[in-house]
Amino acid sequence: MSKKLLDETSKFLSYVLRHEPQAIGLTLDSEGWADIEALISGAARNGRSLDRSLIENIVASSDKKRFSISEDGQFIRAVQGHSTKSVALQLEEKQPPQTLYHGTATRFMDSISQQGLIPGSRHHVHLSEESATASTVGKRYGTVVILRVAAQQMQEQGFKFYQAENGVWLTEQVPVRFISTL
Fold first, then answer.
1. Total number of domains in the chain
2. In 77, 127, 133, 169, which residue has its Cα 20 to 30 A from 99's Cα atom?
């Protein structure tokens, strides 16, 4: 299987499982699960060839672990990053490490310095335990800036943190007072 096919299919899965399931007539449950056969059929109706083997390969080989397949092998979901209103993941609150990181681009810093980190169209702000991971994420958007988030201090002041299956830390917002640059 070519890397190009895997990358294109992974992007397609992110699009339909996180943001626009209706684009292929797919329905997600409140936890983001979609029937794999319905996904394959919906993709085919929209000119995209998917099969179970390709889907399983993407789930298994993804370094970011963006997707998971249910224990019974019938369903797939994105583990975080949803913007669709039909999904409301029931995540267990967790104790964050003292510091978490967020990668962004210099062009977003004026907005961040005024409103902090907000989820935008997503349900949560995404944070990582490693500054290197945050750097990789930030580079996708331009000249990178690594932000340090005082996560433990936030939690002590009532903010909730969750951790997705792939290790990404999630919170609803990060006010400016908890942010510093690395």
1. 2
2. 77
